[in-house]
Amino acid sequence: MTTVRPPTDPAELHRLMSLMTGDEKHSAAATSTLDVLHVLYDRVLHVDPQHPDDPVRDRFLLSKGHGPMAYYAVLAVHGFLDEAELATWAQPGSRLGLHPDRVLVPGVEIGSGSLGHGLPLAVGTAVGLRIRGLTTPRVVVLVGDAELDEGSNHEAVAYAGRSGLANLTAVVVDNDSATHRGDLAELFLAEGWRAITVDGRDHDVLETALTAAHDDRPLAVVAVVEPKG
Amino acid sequence: MTLVTTSLTTTTMREAFLHATADAIDTDDRTVLVLADISAGADPVPDLARRRPGRVVNVGIREQLMIGVAGGLALTGLRPVVHSYAPFLVERPYESLKLDLGHQDVGAVLVSIGASYDQPGIGRTHEAPEDVAVVDTLPGWTVHVPGHPDEADRLVREAIAGDGPVYVRLSSEVNAAPHHGTGLQTVREGSPDDVVVAVGPTLDRVLAAARFRDATVLYTSTVRPFDAAGLRAVVGEVPTVTMVEPYLEGTSARVLDEALSDRPHRLVMIGYPREESHRYGDHELPL
């Protein structure tokens, strides 16, 4: 299922992102997620642009839908999108909006933008795969540190931890944008998750964390990047 | 409101729904019951949970998560049946209905209890006469308002067998007999210029009301999509159409008006008034 391909050149991702202009307000969100997305699609996820609906694919859910330029760039590099389409970004009628839409873009698992929905959807997806007896696929959801303030996420973290959803991974991209923030890893640990805090710009460290054993628990990877400022 | 005074059956709508869902879980691999504690201990749920491990998902008292989980389950090809009191099922997690189901282009069967003022002593926190109006803001939903446990049984089974978003509004108030069939059904023929549409458990009271003695009485247990063609086929050239709904008055004014847009008409909308209730006790429909 995995296509053997050379590692993605980071400069190529930056070039593709430069094709998408008009949402400078969320450019920090786009760059904060770039390295995590790069590592996930290059080294971790089992997805195939030729079979985007394969039942045994890994599911990646971008909950933090703001600033999805990095997401679209990675999807283009991996064959889910044509590079030429990136220039239509945020244009009327384009499939590539300021927040991604799963109905429009192959490989996009959820439509997102309103914060606090991806993690509950990921929990349901992980439960659903377990019910269907699909033990191989992983469910990986990316949230922002500020997004964790949403109450729906606390509902999801508590339930997932107490249910032993070992096929679920939450990646928290931490650019220090949360108000009244606490210890992010502790939030997950307290509910029975495994939690690891890593440098969100170090690809090897990210890969190690994202492929770590879950020990029959869901896994949270807090990927720390430079503060939003 | 008078509660459970006319039922000839010992089965409640809630019991009919839970047993229909259990049957579906026993006989197909798609159905999953999603709860937020409500009804987790009601027969046959505990036995079902033991018999079909994993097919009853009780997320605890976390109603936003309940809908998000339903959306995720549906994304994996399963058919979630989601249940709670109406305010906790469709009001508290309203944005989750919009985004975790509708925007993801997946369906679920939502089944509520507590319809409007079913429990007179419970107070405003558990009352949601606004529920159908709330769901009606969302595109593509089917809304069933059964008037009898047998109708609830049938409508739940049909809803589970489908794929789209469905809201089934159960009530402890019931009619004496079920009325099966789809769309508007003529229960009593009268004047084509004086037509009453009775929804779900309001039917027996409509039939007994002196003010509707000469009217044609139609019945429906499905309010969305509304059977506009069925209404047009029955009414006269300049009709007065009265709709009696066991929830917020005026909820269906829009669809009635659209159905009769080709002729002069007068609408009378009967339902519960728009009020911030601080009153315990019966709430009577103003028939």
From TrEMBL, chain A:
UniProt KW keywords: Transferase
Pfam families the record matches: Transketolase_N (PF00456)
GO molecular function, one term: transketolase activity
Spans through the membrane: none
InterPro entries linked to this entry: THDP-binding, Transketolase_N
Residue ranges of domain Transketolase N-terminal in the record: 25-218
Catalytic EC class: transferase
UniProt superkingdom: Bacteria
EC number(s) per entry: 2.2.1.1
Classification via Gene3D superfamilies: 3.40.50.970
Protein name in the entry: Transketolase
Lineage: Bacteria, Bacillati, Actinomycetota, Actinomycetes, Pseudonocardiales
